[in-house]
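re the bet — no i am not wrong, look at it urself. input seq straight from the record:
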Amino acid sequence: LADIAISQGRYARAEKLCGEARLHVKTRRPRRGTSSSRKVQRASREEAALLATLGNLRLRQFRYGEARVFLERSLEGGSRHVPALERSLIWNNLGVLHAQEDRIEEAIRCYEEARKISAALGQESMLMTTEANLSVLHAKRGDPSAADAACRRALAHETLWGSARTRFLRLHATGVTSLL
C-alpha cells in the first residue's frame, strides 16, 4: 500500500504505512536461536521490501542520503531475500539517485545492473526505461554513439511493451541524443 501511496504522491500516507510496517517487521523479527531458517528468510524479505519502499519514498522526497542508505541496505541480502524484479527496481532507483547527484558513471553502473536483471526476466517495460535512462546519461557524458545505441534499444523495447510513460521517456532520450 505504501508503494501505491508513493506513486500517487501521497508521501505522508506512505510514511505512515511504512511506520506501521516497521513495527510489524520489528515484532515479527525472529529471536536468536528460536526460529527456523524459513521464518528468518521471511522476516529478511519483509525487511528488504520495506527498506526498498523507504528508499523509493526518500528518493521522491529528494532526500538522497537517506534514500541511498535504504536502497543499498535493501540489497544486502542479495537474491536470497530480494526477488529479481524488486532488485531490478532497486538498482534502477539507485541509478536515478546517482544521476540526480550528477554521478554519471555510478548511475550507468546501476542502470546496467538493472538492465541485466530485467533482461533475464524478460521485463520489456523495465528494459525500455533503463535503456532510455542510459541514453540520456551517455549523452551527458558526451558519448553520442553509446547514447544512440541505448536509444535504439529503448525504441525496440517500447515497440514490444509501450505505454504513454515509456513513450515519453524514450522520446526524451531521443531528443537529448539528437542534440549531440
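see?? Confidence is low (pLDDT under 50) at residues 39-43. told u. also Residues 37-60 form the longest helix (24 residues). so pay up
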